[in-house]
Amino acid sequence: MTLGELSHIIVWGATAAYAVALLAFSFDLASLADRVGATRRDGAVPVSAGAARATTASAAVGTVTAASTLTDARPTGRLAVPVDGGGPRRAASIGMAVTVVGLLLHVVGAVTRGLAAGRVPWANMYEFTLVGTLVTIVTFLALCRTRDLRFLGSFVLGLTTVALGVSLVGFYTPAAGVEPALQSPWLVIHVSIATISTGLFTVAFAASGLQLLKDSREARLRTADGDAAVAGRGLAGSAWRWLDVLPSLRDLEALSFRINAVGFVLWTFTLIAGAIWAEAAWGRYWGWDPKEVWSFVVWVVYAAYLHARTTRGWSGRRAAWFSLVGYATVIFNYTAVNLVFQGLHSYSGV
Amino acid sequence: MSTTDPRHDDATHDDATHDDAPHDAPDRHSDQDAARLDHGPADHMSTPEPEAPSAASLPTLGVVGTLRWTWRQLTSMRVALMLLMLLAIVSVPGSVLPQKPVDRPAVARYIVENPTLGPLLDRLGFFDVYASAWFSAVYLLLFISLVGCILPRTRVHLRALRARPPRTPRRFDRFTVRGEVVVAAAPDDVVAAARAALRGPVRLLPRFRVDDDVEAGGARTVAAERGYVRESGNLLFHLALVGILVSVATGQLLHYRGQALVVEGRGFANSVTDYDTFEAGTAFDPRSLVPFTLTLDRFTSEFTPDARALDFLAEVTVAEPGEEPREADIRVNSPLTVGEAKVYLQGNGYAPDVTVRDAAGEVAFAGAVPFLPEDPVYTSRGVVKVPDVSTGEQIGLVGYLLPTAEVTEAGARSIYPQPFEPLLVLTVWTGDLGLDDGVPQNVYELDDSEMTNLLDDEGRPVTLFVRPGQTVDLPDGLGSFTWEGLPRFVALDLRHDPALTWILVSSLLALAGLSLSLFAPRRRLWLRIAPGEGRTVVTAAALARSDDVGLQAELDRLLGAVGERCGPVLEPAAHDSDDDAPARAGAGGRHDL
Ligand code: HEM
Questions:
Q1: pLDDT exceeds 60 at position A41
Q2: Which residue of A has its CA nearest to B308?
Q3: What is the CA radius of gyration of chain B?
Q4: Which of A294, A310, B149, B575 is most buried when burial is the number of CB atoms within 10 A of its CB?
C-alpha cells in the first residue's frame, strides 16, 4: 500500500468518526429538548437557554483576587432552563470525544496526503475539502474551549461529514505533484487562507441558520399563544423543541458575527494574495476569471452582511440571511465554479 | 439616543452622519439591561441617519432640496447596502457568458449560436460586463456613496479623537459587566494606581484615555476609554478602497501590454511594431518604451510520464541600452523584470524549421513556423504559407505536428508532449493565399476561399507524412518540402503597470484598517473609589461598543492591578456594594458565548 492509499483509508476513518459524533450530538440535542419538554408545557413562551445564568469570573493576579460578576441576565420568562441544568450531557461528551478522535485521524490523513504528494495537501478539490473541513472542526473545537457550543456539534459535524463524504466519493484523485502554475509559495499562502476562511464561514453559517430557525419558531409560538392547533404544527411543533434549548437569538447572532468577521478578514487576505499570485503567474492581478468573479461576489456579499448588521432595520434576522446567502456563494464558488466553469482556475483535478 | 444612555454626555458620535456609533449597548446578551441603557434590540446599532424627507414631500423641495435629498439617500447606509448587493449581482453575468477581453472567439461563437439573444446581449454589454455602462454605474455610485459617507465621518472622528472619556455614570447597577475590590490604601493612591494600570507600559502609546474627578459626595471617579482606533481603522479601510479604485484606474490609463512569439535562437526588440499584439492605456506614450532586446537561447520543459507538465524554463539573453547583455531565466511563476516591464512565460510550443522549394527548384520559403499546441500532448496545428513561388500558384500546407507520433490504421496521433517521434502531417493547397489584398490575416489559419485542396487519384486529400531531416515531393510537381529541424517557441507576455505598487499598498492598508475596525475593542471603564473606615471600596463598571468577550477580563485585569498596587486586599462587606451584585458563587470560567 502506498502512503497516498493509506491516507485515503485514514480519511475514510475520520469521516466515519465524524458520522458517529454527529449521531451523538443529535441525540444530545434531542434529549435536551426532552428535558425541557418534561418541565414545561409545549407552546409556552420559549426561554433561551442562556437567559438565566450568573457566571462569576474571577481573575487571580498574584495573591490578589478581584472578584467581579458577570450576570448574563436575570430570569425573564416563565421558565428558565439552563443548558447544563439537567445533569451531565453524556451524549454530548461522547460526541466531543469522538470528534477529537476524528480530528486526529483527519490530521494524520492530511499530513500523509501531503507527504505522498510531496507538497502541501491543498491543490485540488479533494484536498481543499480535506483541509477546509479540518479547519471547520478545529474552529469548532477551539471555540468550544471558551464557550459551551456543543449545541452546534450536530450542524458542524453534519456539514463536515457530508463534505468529506462527497469529496471522497466524487472528487478523489490520487496524490501527485502539481503543474507549473501551481508551483509557488502562494499556493501555500493563498489557498490555505482561503480554505481556513471557508471553514470559518461554515461554522458561522451553522449559527446563523440556527438563529433563523429559532427566530421563526419563537415568532410562531408567539402568534400561536396558546392556540394548540397552531402550536403543534411545523416549526412550532414539538419536533423542533430542541431549538428552545439553544442560546438566545442575540447570542447566536453575536457568535455568527464574530466568526464571520474573522472569516471576512481572511477572505480579504485571500483576494489580495490571489491577486499577487495572479500577477506573478498570469501576468495580471485581476482578470475576471470565473473564480475571481465569484470570490469577489463572496467578498461583496459578506461586506453587505457587515453593513446590514449596522443598518437600522437590517440587523438580526435580515443580517442572518446575508450570512446564509454569503455561505451559498462560498459553496457555489467552491463547487460549480470549479467543476462547471471554464477558467484559469481549473485545478479541481476531477 | 435615549436619555438613560450612560454616555449621553458624549455627543461626539451622535451627530455622525453614518454613524457607527451607538453600538454602545452594554453587553447585548442582556435584554433588560440593553433595553435600559440603549435603544433596545430593534435599533441597537441604529444610526442617527439624517431623516430623509418622505417621498410625498418631494415636490416642495425645489432643485436644491431634491439634490440634497438625493445626496442623502445616496449616502445612507441603506442605499450603500443595496448598492453592495447590486454589485454582487451585476458581477455574475461575466462569469456565465463568454467575455470579449478573455475569449473573443467564444463570444463570436455564442452570438452565432444564439442569433436572437446573442446580438441583444452584445448591445447591452453582456459580453464585456466589467466595462459595461451598468456595471460601471453601480460601482461608481457605490464609491460616490462611500466618499459621501466617509467625509463627514472623518470630520466627526477627528473631533472625537480629542474628546475626553465620558463622565462616570451615577449608578453602576445597570451595567452587566461590573466588579469590585476593597483595599486598604487611600483613594489618591488608588486613583494613581488605576491611572498607571490603564495607561499601560508604553508612555507614548497609552492604552486608555483616562480622566479622574471628584464627586459631590466625596468619592473619586476614574473614567477611561479605549478603542478610538476602531473607527480610525474603519475610515482607513474605506479610504483605502477608494485608493484601490483610483490606482486601478490610473494603471488602466498608463499601462501597456504586448505579446510576442519568440522561436529559439531568435529575439525581439521592445518596440510597438515588434509585438504580435500590443495594447496600451490612453495616456501611454510609446516613446517611453525602453528599447531592450531579448533573445530566446533555449527552452526546456519537463513532464510526468502521464504527460502532465512539471516545469517550463525559458533561458534568455536580454540587452538593455547601455548595458552588457545578461542571461536570465523565465519560468511560469517568476517573470523577468526588464526595462520597467515584466516578461511572463505565457505559452510554448514547437516551430518546425522548414524549407519549401517551388516547381522551379527555387527556395520559395525557409524558416521556423510556430504550430500552436491544442492539447496536453502538444498535438499542434499550423500553416506553412508559401506566397513567393517563382512559377505557378501559391502553396499552402496545413496540418498537425505530433511530437511523439503513434501511427496506426486509424491514423496518427500524438501520445506525449516531448519530441521523441516527431511527425508532420500536412495537406496541400494551391491557389491564392489572399495575402496581397492588404487585409491582416491570422498566420495560424489558412484562408481557403481562393485555394483548392489537392486530391489524390481516389479523390482523397493528399496527406504528407514528414519526419525531421526528410524531404518529400509535393504532389502535381509543385516542388518539395524539407523539414530541417524542430526548434521550440515561447509566447511571451510583456506588461508594465506603474500603479501596481499603489494597488498593493492600498490593499494592504484596507486589510489593516479592516482588522482594526473589526477587532480593536472599544471599551469604557469607570471606577468609583469611595473612602471608608480604613478601607477604600473600589467599584467598577465597563461597557463595550459591540459584543466583546474580553470586556470582563479587561475589568478584572484593572481591578487586579489596582489590588496589587494598593494591597492588601480586604474582604468586601455586604454593604460595601452599591448595588445588588449577585452571588459570587460558582466559579464559572466558562461563560457561554
Ligand atoms: C465599496 C464599497 C464598500 C465596501 C466594500 C465596504 C465594506 C465595509 C466593511 C467590510 C465594513 C466592516 C468593517 C466593520 O464592520 O467595522 C464596513 C463598515 C462600515 N461601512 Fe462600509 N463599505 C463600502 C461602502 C460603504 C458606504 C458607501 C458607506 C456609507 C454609506 C459605508 C459605511 C460603513 C460604516 C458606517 C461602517 C461601520 C460599521 C460598523 O460600525 O461596524 N460603507 N464597510
A1: no
A2: A179
A3: 38
A4: A294
Upper half-sphere CA count for residue B375 (Cβ side, 13 Å): 11
Residue among B154, B238, B248, B506 whose CB has most ligand 1 atoms within 8 A, to mutate: B238
Distance B77 CA to ligand 1 centre (A): 8
Band (pLDDT 50/70/90 cuts) for residue A177 is low
C-alpha grid cell, residue B116: 436572437
- Cβ B516 vs Cβ B232: under 8 Å: yes
Question: Which is nearest to A244 in space by CA: A86, A88, A25, A47?
Answer: A47
**What global pTM score does this model have?**
0.79
Contact A310 B312 (CB under 8 A): no
**Residues B520 and B380: beta-carbon distance below 8 Å:** no
Place of cell 502531417: B425
Q: pLDDT tens-digit profile of B413-453?
A: 899 999 999 999 999 999 888 877 766 677 788 888 888 88
- Name the percent of chain B in helix, strand, coil, to the closest 5: 30, 30, 40
Identify the helix (H) or strand (E) that includes residue B338.
strand B336-338
**Complex ipTM > 0.85:** no
Q: Convert the pLDDT of each residue in B14-51 to its tens digit.
A: 333 333 333 333 333 333 333 222 322 333 333 334 44
pLDDT at B438 (0 to 100):
67
Q: Is the CB of B560 less than 8 angstroms away from the CB of A284?
A: no
Query: What cell does B30 get?
Result: 442582556
Q: Are A37 and A245 in contact (CB under 8 A)?
A: no
Name the residue among A13, A329, A308, A82 with its Cα closest to residue B591: A82
- Which of residues B124 and A186 earns the better pLDDT score? B124
CA distance A38 to chain B (A): 24
**Would you say the CB of residue A178 lies under 6 angstroms from ligand 1?**
no
Q: Is B64 on the interface with A (CB under 8 A)?
A: no
Interface A–B counts its CB contacts (< 8 A) at: 258
Q: What local confidence, expressed as pLDDT, does residue B30 receive?
A: 32
Contact A30, B562 (CB under 8 A): no
Q: State which amino acid sits at residue B287.
A: R
pLDDT at B337 over 60: yes
For the cut 90, the answer to whether the pLDDT of residue B185 exceeds it is no
- CB of B239 closer than 6 angstroms to any ligand 1 atom: no
Ligand 1 atom with the shortest distance to the CA of B230 = 16
Residue pointed to by grid coordinates 450570512: A323
Contact criterion met (CB < 8 Å) for A247 and B23: no
Query: What percent of chain B has pLDDT above 90?
Result: 43
Per residue in A58-115, pLDDT tens?
A: 333 332 223 332 233 323 322 233 444 456 788 889 999 999 999 999 999 999 998 8
Q: Is the pLDDT of residue B78 over 80?
A: yes
Measure Cα distances from B306 to A162, A177, A183, B272, B413 in Å: 32, 12, 18, 40, 16
Contacts of residue A174, defined as CB under 8 A and 6 or more positions apart, other chains included, come to A4
In short, whether B17's Cβ falls inside 6 Å of ligand 1 is no
Ligand 1 atom nearest residue A268's Cα: 10
List chain B residues with CB under 8 Å of A264. Answer: 514, 518
How much distance in Å is there from the Cα of A307 to the middle of ligand 1?
6
Which has more confidence, B41 or A225?
A: A225
B179: Cβ contacts below 8 Å, ≥ 6 apart: A66, A67, A68, A69, B539, B540, B541, B542, B555, B556, B558, B559
Domain ranges of chain A: 1-39+90-178, 181-349
**CB of B150 closer than 6 angstroms to any ligand 1 atom:** no
**Which domains, ranges and CATH numbers included, belong to chain B?**
65-160 (no CATH), 176-227+521-589 (3.30.310), 250-350+492-507 (no CATH), 353-484 (no CATH)
**How far apart are alpha carbons B355 and B395 in whole angstroms?**
13
